[in-house]
Amino acid sequence: QVQLVESGGGLVQAGGSLRLSCSVSGSSQSINDMDMGWFRQAPGKQRERVAGITSAGSIFNGPSVEGRFTISRDTAKGTVTLQMNNLNSDDTGIYYCNANTLVDVYWGQGTQVTVSS
Fold first, then answer.
1. Model confidence over 20-68: pLDDT tens digits?
2. Where are the beta strands (DSSP E) in the chain?
3. Who's near 10: CB < 8 A, 6+ residues apart?
4. Residue 29's pLDDT is what?
5. Contact indicator for 34, 25 with CB cutoff of 8 Å
6. Alpha helices, DSSP H only, in 2-72?
7. Band (115; pLDDT cuts 50, 70, 90)
8. Which position among 37, 45, 85, 103 has the lowest Cβ density within 10 Å, counted as fewest Cβ atoms?
9. Rounded CA gap, 12 and 115, in Å?
């Protein structure tokens, strides 16, 4: 059973930075063989995709985070990281890690990010 565990969330002031990490375990596949992504859900809003990296290495950044957030992966450690800079109050929400193996889709339990203005 594939498990995703997020870490790194917390409370930060506007303009600050956070680094989220997603640790993937329980799969016979490398994370290089998965499409990985970060989603977030703000209170009262639908879950939205923030950033993603495909198995081929193509990177997607949502328009609201372009130039501020960077997704990367460490195959040896089995982790996917989201570096978030210049945070603002609109970035507040629960951030979820997602893995798509083309056979199944997995989610982490989420980590809370709160940006104070």
1. 999 999 988 889 999 999 999 999 999 999 999 999 999 999 999 999 9
2. 3-7, 10-13, 18-25, 35-41, 48-53, 59-61, 69-74, 79-84, 93-100, 105-107, 111-116
3. 18, 112, 113, 114
4. 86
5. no
6. none
7. very high
8. 103
9. 5
Amino acid in the structure at residue 55 = S
Could you tell me if 107 and 2 are in contact, meaning their C-beta atoms sit under 8 angstroms apart? no
C-alpha–C-alpha distance, residues 62 and 52, integer Å: 9
Cα separation of 2 and 62, whole Å? 26
Instruction: Retrieve residue 25's tokens.
Output: 């375990």
Residues contacting 98, CB < 8 A, separation 6+: 4, 36, 37, 38, 39, 52, 105, 106, 107, 108
Q: What token pair was written down for 15?
A: 């303009």
3-state secondary structure of 2: coil
Measured between its terminal Cα atoms, the distance across the chain in Å is 40
3-state SS assignment for residue 33: helix
